[in-house]
Structure formats: C-alpha cells, structure tokens
Amino acid sequence: MRHRATGLALLLAAALAATAVPAATAGSGRADGTDHAADDPFTADRTNWFRQDRFGMFIHFGAYSNLEGEYKRPDGSTCRNAEWIKRECDIPMDEYEKQAQNFNPADFDAKAIVKAAKDAGMRYIVITSKHHEGYAMWPTKVNDWNLRDHSSFDKNRDILAELKKASDDAGIKLGFYYSIWDWHDKDFPDPATFPKYEKRMYAQLKELVDTYDPALLWFDGEWDTDKPHNPWTARDGERLESYLRGLDPDLVINNRVGKRRVVDGDYGTPEQEIPGAPVDGQLWESCMTLNDHWGYARHDQNWKSAQTLTRNLLATTSRSGNYLLNVGPDARGRVPQPSVDRLRQMGDWLRTAGQGEAVFGARYGGLVEEPAWGHVSRKGDKLYAAVTQWPATGGSLHLKVRTDFEVKSARVLGSDQKVTVTRSGDGYDIKPSGAATNDTATVVELRVDPGPTSRPGRGKGLKQEIFDNENLEGAPRITRTDATLNHSWKYTGSPAASIPADRFSIRWTGSVEPRRSETYTLTTVSDDMARVWIDGKLVIDSWTPHEPRLDKAEVRLTAGRRHSIKVEYAERTGEAHLKLLWSSPGQEQQVIPRSQLYTR
Ligand code: FHN
C-alpha cells in the first residue's frame, strides 16, 4: 500500500511532478537491458484482486453532466449527447466554460454511490477523474480547469477524496479513468507543443496516485483522431506505463495506456460488447452502459433489464473476463434511480442461494464447451452451470466435455430438487427434476474431479542463447537460463545491457513438462518474429516480421513427460515482445511457469 501525500507534501509533489520530464523528452537514449514485463498478469499477486472481483462500477461524471445530455443551440435547435456534448454539439469553448462555472454537484453522495455498488455486488469502482473535455474532478494544482477552481461547487469538498474514503470503508477498490485526449489543453493538438501537455498530464497522474492511492488506472482517448488532433503514440504509452509503474508497482493499468493492443498494460478493454470466448494473451474487462449513454442524459430512458445485465455478468465470468457497468450521475451528482434499482436487482440475484459463487473468484469453465442454454464458470472443483433456458419437464441439459473429468455430485442452488447427471455421447446430460428457481438464471452446481494433475515440476527455465544480430548467426553473445518467456522489451529495452534495442535474436531450448495429459493451446505474443517447435515439430511459424500479434497452436502433451521445446525469436527494429503462454481444459491461461521448463 502506498503512503498518502497530504497538505504541504502534496503541494511539493505537484511542484516536483510538474517538472517531471517523461523519458523521451529527456533525450532519445535507449535503456538497453530493460524488460517492461514486470510479471504475468494472469498469475501475479498484483492482479489477483482484479481476477477475483469480476464486477465493477464505472462512473462517468464531469462538467458535461451539468448539461444532462441536452444543449439548446443559439438558433433554438436542441442537440443531444452526453460526455461528448461539447464536441458533438459544437459548443464554443468559452460557452462551455461558462456553463461549467454553474456546475454544482452538491448532492454527490459518495457513501450512497458506494452502497449502490455494494448492493449490486460490485467489488471495485472506476470514476472519470478527467474525460476528453479536460476538466479535472479533483483539486489539481496543474491548472484551474477543474471542479475546485471552475464551478459553483463547495470549495472545501473533494469528491474523489470522499469516494476514496467511502470505498476504503466499504472494502471496495477505487480506480480512476483518465483521458489522454484533451479537448481543452491548448498544447495538446500540436506535436511541437504536445510535450508541454504531456508534462502536465504526468503531473496530474502523480497527484492522483500520491493523493488517492488508486488500485487501477483506466486510460482512454488513446486512438488516432482529430478535432483536436491526437498525437499519442505507442512509444508515448511505453513511457507513460513505465513512469506509472515506477510511481506504484501495484497499479493495475488497462491497455488504452498505449494503443489498446495485447502488449499494452495489463488487460484488454472491449466496450459495449462481450467477447464470445476467453481472450488470448491478456486479461480483459468489458465496459458497458446501463442505458445508451456513459454520461448522464435525461432523455435516455432505454435501460437494460436486470436479467440482461446479470446474464452479461455470467457470460463475462464464464470467459474469464470482468464486467465494468456504468452509471452517470446527473448535474447534482445523483445516480439515476433506474440505475440504482437495476444494480440492486443484480445484487439480489448474486446474494440468493449462493449464486454469486458462479461469479466471484470464478473463471472460464474450461472443462466443457459453452452450451447454448447458459454459461458455465469454474471455481476450484466446482462447475457452475448458470441455466438461462431451463429444460421442459423431463428434459435435460447437455454439456460437451473438452477433457476427461468426473462429475461427483450435482445440485440446484436454492432448490432441493433431485438432479441426475449421466454420461451421454460427447459429454454429460444434466436432468433436473424440478422447475427453474428464477427467471434470470438457475445455477446447477456440479462438483467435479478434473482428473490427475501432477505436482509442480522442479524446472528452472529454458536455456537461452542471445545473438547480437537478427539472424541467430554465429556464436551467441550471451548464454544463460531464462526462467520464463515473458518479455516486453518494447522500443527502448533489450534482453541485456550489452544487447542493443534493435537487431537481436534469441533461441530458447530445453523441455516443457505439462501437469495434465490433455491438449494444450500454446500462445505466443510476439513482435517482430517468432516460431516454436515441440518434440521437433514446428507448431507456430510466425517468421514474417510483424507488429505485436498473437499466434496459437494446439499440441497434445502428457503429464510428467518432458517434451522438447525450441523457440526462436528475432527483433529487427521498433518494438520487441515475446511471451509464451499455455492453457488447456484443466489449466487456465498463464505464462508457462518456470517450474515446468527445463534447460534440457
Ligand atoms: O470516448 C469515450 C467515451 O466517452 C466513453 O468514456 C467510453 C467508455 O469506455 N470510452 C471512449 C469511447 O471508446
């Protein structure tokens, strides 16, 4: 846990941070030997809360909220939008600033908001600290375009501090959304002056980290766009991510810190959609609105039903994702009652008969294919089949297996009805004897024996040979043991101080020992080139130079047996990344751990 700056320390920190010079503007020197892959987000203690909590509240709240989704143009016409209203309704900046001067969210009640989140079963909150409009929702020292200095709000209040205290008191994690894209800062659009904006952005982020100790930073506004032009690059993202990890190594950071790619940050951020299967190569979180707008829009009463929202949460969990569901407080800071009502209904379902076990701490079912009649998540030796289409009387539910496992027992949460489970064709038939318990999803809990998993190995890693050329030519410059293939050298890093950031190559050799006998999916995340052999067979061939990308192969492995492995990698110029992950029906996705890798 980080210390929290107060008073004078905060002022000093802001002054120091304002002079913080992002590495790039300090010269283009290469930091050879730097590897930005601090850990494996799939297994790191740092990300454990994120992988267990599954369900969070997004809050879009800013000066745009003061307009409540509607702007009357001088010609008398009405323009509707929410957090994009300034841009989409072409509101002149001076007029936008004038309306913000009247902003007074006096009814913002952090305790009530945190209660609404808890009532929903939400475990973390992410609030917009600064959206594209550039308006800071905390008393930043960096400029006066903020809720303290430019509003009619009580100048003794700090809503982020109020939310931080309420969240801490309730045992809920707090994160901040921060938009890189800034419509207000005059230095933003021009690449020549962008570094001045960047310094201010770094200073603001340091204020947020030092003052409120957030668990997570949710970046946005990273994409190539105009009006105003957005100069942000992947290299800018590398610098920012590195700076933030230096401020707080515990931070969880999303992939929009860079350019929303599999190599940026800790997790992917699909928006208004739920991926149809587990996402390869990165953790992920789907963010979604309750109606059709992120910011408050008085006219938008198109609320999703609690049934839909709860089923979305079940779908997300069953694919090892998180669900970040948004509320947009109005001009007075109040969360709309239809939002509060739906969130409470979701929480009621989660609290009933232990149905929340299918979500909290649960993940991709793995052992079975996802059925058409619902979603299957796994937690230890339990599978939770959340049934959204209950069978007709006498009917059964079929589960297609992905590996051999045994069902030891089955029960319906919240009902004492008998459930029979029988082997049938390519899987199991689940036959309940009674009715569904509710109209959202009835959960059948299956206690399973997932089959033999051998003890962790005693491996120390693979033999690694590093060449100071891109063709694996000549004698290796460095030969050593590499514990895991989990590397993000990015633009400025390299495998060792003696190896330049460009034009190097690596060969890893040895053996890999699986803990289960089943079909494994090997996944590489690479830039520029990579290829993998297992037992002498080329299974991944991505030997054409490429941007960061994923490649996968399925290989049958036998528990306890050491399968020979060879991995080759080459970096030409630009970014450099190489990760090797595996997953199987009984093994959740992770960077292949050191214990299962041997130098011979
Ligand atoms: O432009 C923003 C939008 O206003 C909202 O904040 C969403 C939420 O993730 N993100 C951007 C659109 O992708």
Helix content: 10-25%
The CATH homologous superfamily of the largest domain is named Glycosidases
Biggest sheet strand line-up: 7-6-5-4-1-10-9-8
Number of self-contained structural domains: 3
Poorly predicted runs of 5 or more residues: 3-29
Q: Report the major sheet.
A: 8 strands, parallel
Average per-residue pLDDT, rounded, comes to 95
CATH architectural group of the largest domain: Alpha-Beta Barrel
Structural class determined from secondary elements: alpha+beta
CATH topology grouping of the largest domain:
TIM Barrel
- What is the CA-based Rg, rounded? 26 Å
Quickly name the level 1 CATH class of the largest domain. Alpha Beta
Number of strands: 30
- Approximate shape: flat
What percentage of amino acids are in beta strands? 25-35%
Distance between the termini: 41 Å
Which hetero compounds are present in the coordinates? Answer: ligand FHN
Alpha plus pi helix count: 10
Enzyme class: hydrolase
EC number: 3.2.1.51
Signal peptide: 1-23
GO biological process, one term: fucose metabolic process
